[in-house]
C-alpha cells in the first residue's frame, strides 16, 4: 500500500516537490502516506519500531514545535515528531504534581532534555495533601489576547475545538500597597469619578494616539520618538500621574521592562485595547486545564490528523548531516530527508551548536489554600496582577507579572488557587523580587479575603455605573487601604511552592513580536560546529512574554527556514460540517437551537472552497 | 457525502426536547478497525481506502435514547497517536465513554486491549463507561478469540461487551445506543445548567451577539 511508497527513493528537495494548492487539498493528496489508515485485517498490529524515513524530524513537543509540526504536516510534509519525555509539552508543558516533581529533579541534575532551566527549588509541606492529578501546572503560563494571530490560527485550524476558553477581565496594578484596577475603556474613563477633568482629557488623548501612532500623520513624530523610552515620551507629552502611566505601560501593555521603547509600548497598549469587546468586555482569554501545554497537545493532534507520526519518550543521540541520519538513544536510526528541528531543551548530549540563551526569566509558582475570588471578576476564575518597577520592598527594577488561576480554570481543586509570578530580573535579585511580590500578595489576600470575616462598606465613589446600567466596583484600592492596619490572625497556607530560572534566546524587548534572534537561526554559520548536533535547527526556548504573542512569529521563521517561504503557512481549507450536510442529520424540528447546542463537528470537506473566516485579521 | 439514511427520529410524537453531549474516545491497537466503526456509526458507510482517520477535529453523531432525550456523541479518534503509545492527556480528559476495540481474528489483540483499559483507569475519570468491542464479526471463519474468553475478561473488569462488524454494520448502532443508555444523562443535564461560562472562539461578540451555551 501507499505507506511504503517513499522508503527507498531519495526524495527531491522540498522546493522542487512543493505541491500545488489543489494537490494539498486533503482529498487530492496522495503524497501523505501515513494518513492512510491501516486496512482492516491486512496488516498485523505488531508494535511498530520507529519509522525509517521522514522529511522533517522535530524533537520536543513544546508549543512552537507543535504548531510547526501541524503547519508542515498540513502542507504535505512527512513529519516525525518526538519528545525525550513521556509527556507532551516539553518547555511549555502543563504538568501534574508528580510530573513537576520529576521535572525539578531532572532540571537540577541537568539531565539532557531539561536544558534551559536551572536552580529549581520546590517546597511541599508535609504531610502533602495534594492529589497529583487534580493539578495542571504550566511551566510557562500565557494569556491569549482576543485579537491576536495565534487565536486566529486556532480558529482557522480548528484546534480551538479541542480546548475550552474562559475570559479574563481583571488586570490589577499594585500601587501604594494595594491592588487597583484601571479604567481602561472609554466609558470607564468618562464615568470614573476619581479622575480629574484634565486627566480624563489627557488619558483620552493618549488612547486616541495609541490607535493612530502608525498613521501617515504621525510618521515624523514616531520616527523621532519611536525608538526612545516610552516613559519619558509619555511624561513629556501627556499630563498623567505615575500610577496611570504604570498601569498603561506595565499592566495594560504588560511591558517587561521600564526601558521599553515608545513604539513597542504603544503596540502593546494597543493590543490590549483592540482586544477589548471582541468576544465581550474583556481583553484576554486562557485555555482551561492549562495553557501552552494544552495548546501544544491540540496542535500535535492536528498534526497527527494530517499525518504526522508521534513518538514520546524518544531522546535523540546525534545527527549526521552527511548521511542525514538521526540516531536515537535506544540505537534506532531514522533518515531525515529535509531538516532536523530541535528544542534547545532537548539538544543531544555534547551539543555544540545550541544558540546562546542570555536572557532569563525567573518564575515562582505557588498553590495557596484560598479561592482568591476577591481578585476575579464575577463569573471568572483568573486575573492578572502587575507589580510595576520600584513598587516592592526589594526596590525591583523590573515589573513582576502575576497570572492567578482559580479552581474554575480547571487547574486546581475548589478552595485553592495557583499564582504564577515572573520577572526578567536575573538570578538572586530576580528571586528576591518574586519573594517580595509574593509577600505583598499574601498580605493582600488575607486583608481582602471574605474568608477573614470582614465586610467592607462600599461608598458611591467605589462603584461606577456602566452605560448599560450595571454596577461595577472599581476601587479595590479602597478595599486594601481600609485594612492597612489589619494584622492577619490567620496565615496563608501554601500547599506548593516552586521557584526556577528559565533561559531564552528571545530578547524581552522583542518578546511580543517574537523576532527571532539572529544567532539561533544561523544554521549556515554557527550551527555547523562539528558535534552530535551539527546542522540541527534549534528553536529558541519560550520567551519571557506572558501572552502568546510572538510564538507564531517564531514558528513562521522556522517554517520559512525549512520550506523557503511561509506563503502557504496553514493554507488549508477546512469547512464546518453543518448539520444539514450530515447524512444522519439533526434531530427533527430545529430543536438543536432550542437546546443551545451548536454543531461541534468539523471535518474536511472534500470539495472545500477557500476558507473564509471572519477571524482572519492581522494586527 | 450522501444523503443515505435520512433521520433517526422515525419515532412518533413531538421532537425531543432534552439534549446531552458526551465525549467518547476510541482506543485499541492500530488496525483493529476503530475508525471504521465510527465511520459506520456516523456516516453509515464503510470504505476500504480512506485518506484520513478523521477530519480536523472529531466527529459527532446524535442518537435518540427515548422520546424526549437525544444524546450527542463527540467522538475522538486516536489520529494514529496510539501507535507509539503517545496519546496526549487531553485525549482522555472529560471523556465519559470509551470504546476499547480489538480484532477477533488477531490472537494478541485482546491482550493489547487490556493495556488500553489500564490506561483508561489511570488517565480518565473514574466514572467513565468503558465498552470492550470485538470487531470483524464478518470474518467469523478466521476468529481466534472466542466470545466466552472476551466476555469473561469484560466481566472481570466490569466492562460492557459487544461484538460488531464495521464492514456490515452489524450491531454498531446498538453498541452506541447501549453505551448512551449507561451514561449519567440526568446528572449531566443538571450540571450543564450550572456550568461556568466558556467562550466560543468562533463567535465574536461584535459580529454576533449570540452568547455561548452557558
From TrEMBL, chain A:
GO terms for cellular component: cytosol; nucleus; Rab-protein geranylgeranyltransferase complex. Residues 424-451 form a coiled coil. Belongs to the Rab GDI family. Residues 1-32, 509-532, 572-599 are annotated as: Disordered. The keyword Coiled coil applies. It holds the Pfam family GDI. Residues 13-26 have a biased composition (Basic and acidic residues). GO terms for molecular function: GDP-dissociation inhibitor activity. InterPro entries: FAD/NAD-bd_sf, GDP_dissociation_inhibitor, Mrs6. One of its GO terms (biological process) is vesicle-mediated transport. SUPFAM superfamilies: FAD-linked reductases, C-terminal domain, FAD/NAD(P)-binding domain. This is Rab proteins geranylgeranyltransferase. Keywords: Coiled coil.
From TrEMBL, chain B:
It comes from the Eukaryota. This is Unnamed protein product.
Amino acid at each position: 500500500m501507499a505507506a511504503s511508497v517513499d522508503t527507498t527513493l531519495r526524495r527531491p528537495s522540498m522546493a522542487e516537490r512543493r505541491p500545488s494548492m489543489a494537490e494539498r487539498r486533503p482529498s487530492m493528496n496522495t503524497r501523505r502516506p501515513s494518513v492512510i489508515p491501516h486496512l482492516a485485517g491486512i496488516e498485523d498490529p505488531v508494535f511498530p519500531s520507529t519509522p525509517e524515513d521522514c522529511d522533517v524530524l522535530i524533537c520536543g513537543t513544546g508549543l512552537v514545535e507543535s504548531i510547526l509540526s501541524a503547519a508542515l504536516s498540513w502542507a504535505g510534509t512527512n513529519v516525525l515528531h518526538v519528545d525525550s519525555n513521556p509527556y507532551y509539552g516539553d518547555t511549555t508543558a502543563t504538568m501534574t504534581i508528580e510530573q513537576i516533581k520529576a521535572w525539578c529533579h531532572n532540571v537540577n541534575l541537568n539531565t539532557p532534555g531539561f536544558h534551559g532551566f536551572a536552580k529549581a527549588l520546590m517546597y511541599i509541606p508535609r504531610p502533602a495533601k495534594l492529589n497529583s492529578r487534580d493539578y495542571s501546572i504550566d511551566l510557562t503560563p500565557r494569556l491569549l489576547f482576543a485579537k491576536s494571530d495565534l487565536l486566529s490560527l486556532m480558529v482557522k485550524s480548528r484546534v480551538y475545538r479541542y480546548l475550552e476558553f474562559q475570559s479574563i477581565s481583571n488586570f490589577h496594578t499594585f500601587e501604594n500597597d494595594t491592588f487597583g484596577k484601571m479604567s481602561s475603556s472609554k466609558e470607564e474613563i468618562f464615568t470614573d469619578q476619581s479622575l480629574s477633568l484634565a486627566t480624563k482629557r489627557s488619558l483620552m488623548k493618549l488612547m486616541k494616539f495609541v490607535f493612530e501612532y502608525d498613521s501617515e500623520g504621525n510618521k515624523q513624530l514616531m520616527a523621532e520618538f519611536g525608538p526612545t523610552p516610552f516613559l519619558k515620551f509619555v511624561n513629556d507629552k501627556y499630563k498623567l500621574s505615575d500610577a496611570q502611566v504604570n498601569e498603561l505601560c506595565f499592566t495594560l501593555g504588560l511591558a517587561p521592562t521600564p526601558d521599553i521603547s515608545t513604539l513597542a509600548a504603544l503596540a502593546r497598549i494597543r493590543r490590549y485595547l483592540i482586544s477589548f469587546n471582541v468576544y465581550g468586555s474583556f481583553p484576554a482569554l486562557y485555555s482551561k486545564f492549562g495553557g501552552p501545554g494544552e495548546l501544544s497537545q491540540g496542535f500535535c493532534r492536528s498534526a497527527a490528523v494530517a499525518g504526522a507520526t508521534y513518538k514520546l519518550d524518544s531522546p535523540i543521540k546525534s545527527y549526521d548531516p552527511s548521511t542525514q541520519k538521526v540516531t536515537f538513544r535506544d540505537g534506532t536510526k531514522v533518515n531525515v530527508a529535509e531538516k532536523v528541528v530541535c528544542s534547545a531543551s532537548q539538544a543531544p548530549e555534547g551539543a555544540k551548536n545550541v544558540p546562546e540563551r542570555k536572557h532569563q526569566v525567573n518564575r515562582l509558582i505557588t498553590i495557596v489554600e484560598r479561592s482568591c475570588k476577591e481578585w476575579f471578576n464575577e463569573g471568572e476564575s483568573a486575573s492578572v496582577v502587575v507589580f510595576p518597577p520600584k513598587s516592592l520592598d526589594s526596590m525591583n527594577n523590573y515589573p513582576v507579572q502575576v497570572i492567578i488561576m482559580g479552581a474554575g480554570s480547571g487547574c486546581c481543586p475548589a478552595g485553592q488557587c495557583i499564582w504564577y509570578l515572573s520577572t526578567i530580573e536575573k538570578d538572586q535579585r530576580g528571586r528576591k523580587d518574586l519573594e517580595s511580590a509574593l509577600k505583598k500578595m499574601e498580605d493582600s489576600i488575607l486583608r481582602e479575603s471574605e474568608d477573614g470575616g470582614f465586610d467592607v462598606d462600599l461608598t458611591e465613589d467605589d462603584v461606577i455605573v456602566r452605560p448599560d446600567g450595571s454596577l461595577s466596583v472599581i476601587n479595590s484600592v479602597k478595599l486594601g487601604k481600609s485594612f492597612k492596619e489589619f494584622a492577619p490572625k490567620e496565615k496563608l497556607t501554601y500547599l506548593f511552592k516552586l521557584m526556577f530560572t528559565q533561559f531564552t534566546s528571545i530578547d524581552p524587548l522583542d518578546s511580543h513580536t517574537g523576532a527571532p534572534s539572529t544567532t539561533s537561526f544561523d544554521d549556515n554559520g554557527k550551527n555547523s560546529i562539528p558535534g552530535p548536533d551539527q546542522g540541527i535547527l534549534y528553536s529558541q526556548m519560550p520567551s519571557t512574554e506572558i501572552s502568546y504573542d510572538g510564538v507564531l512569529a517564531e514558528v513562521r521563521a522556522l517554517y520559512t527556514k525549512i520550506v523557503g517561504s511561509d506563503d502557504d503557512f496553514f493554507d488549508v481549507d477546512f469547512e464546518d460540517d453543518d448539520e444539514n450536510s450530515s447524512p444522519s442529520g439533526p434531530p427533527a424540528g430545529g430543536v438543536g437551537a432550542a437546546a443551545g447546542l451548536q454543531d461541534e463537528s468539523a471535518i474536511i470537506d472534500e470539495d472545500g472552497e477557500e476558507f473564509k473566516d471572519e477571524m482572519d485579521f492581522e494586527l | 457525502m450522501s444523503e443515505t439514511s435520512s433521520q433517526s427520529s422515525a419515532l412518533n410524537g413531538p421532537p425531543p426536547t432534552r439534549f446531552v453531549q458526551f465525549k467518547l474516545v476510541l482506543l485499541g491497537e492500530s488496525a483493529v478497525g476503530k475508525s471504521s466503526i465510527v465511520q459506520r456509526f456516523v456516516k453509515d458507510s464503510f470504505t476500504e481506502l480512506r485518506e484520513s482517520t478523521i477530519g480536523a477535529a472529531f466527529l459527532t453523531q446524535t442518537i435518540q435514547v427515548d422520546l424526549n432525550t437525544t444524546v450527542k456523541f463527540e467522538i475522538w479518534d486516536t489520529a494514529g497517536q496510539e501507535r507509539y503509545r503517545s496519546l496526549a492527556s487531553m485525549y482522555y480528559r472529560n471523556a465519559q465513554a470509551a470504546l476499547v476495540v480489538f480484532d477477533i481474528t488477531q490472537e494478541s489483540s485482546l491482550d493489547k486491549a487490556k493495556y488500553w483499559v489500564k490506561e483508561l483507569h489511570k488517565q480518565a475519570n473514574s466514572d467513565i463507561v468503558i465498552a470492550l468491542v470485538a470487531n470483524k464479526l464478518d470474518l467469523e471463519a478466521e476468529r481466534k478469540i472466542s466470545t466466552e474468553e472476551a466476555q469473561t475478561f469484560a466481566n472481570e473488569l466490569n466492562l460492557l461487551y459487544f461484538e460488531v462488524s464495521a464492514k456490515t454494520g452489524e450491531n454498531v448502532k446498538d453498541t452506541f445506543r447501549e453505551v448512551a443508555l449507561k451514561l449519567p444523562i440526568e446528572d449531566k443535564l443538571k450540571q450543564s445548567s450550572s456550568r461556568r461560562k466558556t467562550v466560543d472562539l468562533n463567535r465574536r461578540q461584535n459580529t454576533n451577539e449570540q452568547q455561548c451555551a452557558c
